[in-house]
Amino acid sequence: MAATPTPAEPAAAGSIRPLPLLAAIAIMLGITAWPHALAAPAGGADHWAATALFWAMSAGFVSGVGFRPRFILWRAGFSGLACFTGIALAVLRLQTL
């Protein structure tokens, strides 16, 4: 009989993390309802703020549902810390316009 494989991640790795998940849902709903929030004063889209905010939304969904990528760079880029870093970068960018 073959031995059962041991899980590579602890059991808590697959649990839902409510703070990044709620942040991702808030970003999704906020940008859907108010897309002009990412507009520059001249009226055009601010691509740097949009990129940071959509990165934060993606990281929030990935880490919020409990998924942890195996590759270390993907894990860092889609972590809860990456979610809040993206939000902070978007807020800083929009305040400097």
Describe the overall structure:
The protein has 97 residues and is an all-alpha fold. It has helices at residues 18-33, 47-64, 72-77, 80-95.
In short:
The protein is mainly alpha-helical. It has four helices and no strands.
Low-confidence stretches: none
- The helix fraction, in percent, is 55-70%
Largest sheet: none
- Strand percentage lies at under 5%
Radius of gyration: 17 Å
* SS-derived structural category: mainly alpha
Topology, number of strands: 0
- Mass-distribution shape: elongated
Helix/strand order, N-terminal first: HHHH
End-to-end separation: 65 Å
Give the integer mean of the pLDDT values.
89
Defining traits:
97 residues, mainly alpha, 4 helices, 0% strand, elongated
Chain-wise SSE layout:
Elements: H1 18-33, H2 47-64, H3 72-77, H4 80-95
